[in-house]
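Study this protein:
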Amino acid sequence: FRAQGHRTEWLPLGCDPEIHRPGALPVEFDVGFVGSLVEPRRVRLIEELMGHFRVYVDRWFLEDMALAFSRSHIVWNSAANEDLNMRVFEALAAGSFLLTERLPEEAGLAELFEDGEHLALYDEDELVERVRYYLERPDERARIAERGRAEALAHHTYDHRVARMLEVAASLPRRERPVPATATLV
């Protein structure tokens, strides 16, 4: 679109702090995953994790999803299409420690969040080692989760997204339209 002279804006997904908030359930699992298991690669990685850790897997939405995050030390994310998916924003806003896969540059993850600062990244071949590393470092995990939540709430809520849309809309030039000869201006 830009090559054809159109103005474009990237508007990433976001979170809702009233829905995606820390839960009060006791931690029972090492790793938690909330989402669908239709993608074969994701299923294979979940099975690999289950071979090493106590893993919670379910499909929840809204407040139930946020509560499910609180049941695990680590919320694991795997984007089915190498994209910056909603789970990143939701887990961070819920105050969970998020371990998500390293994405291609064009996905935009690195533009918004920093590995080891707001969340943790993994490559497929190091997944088990990364989980083990962070399970053994609860203080580091808590610091990263706290900074991730602060970043999500400060810059990535749906209120921020709406404000950006309105800002972009207000900056667009008004096109003068001819008034039809039969129109009456009031």
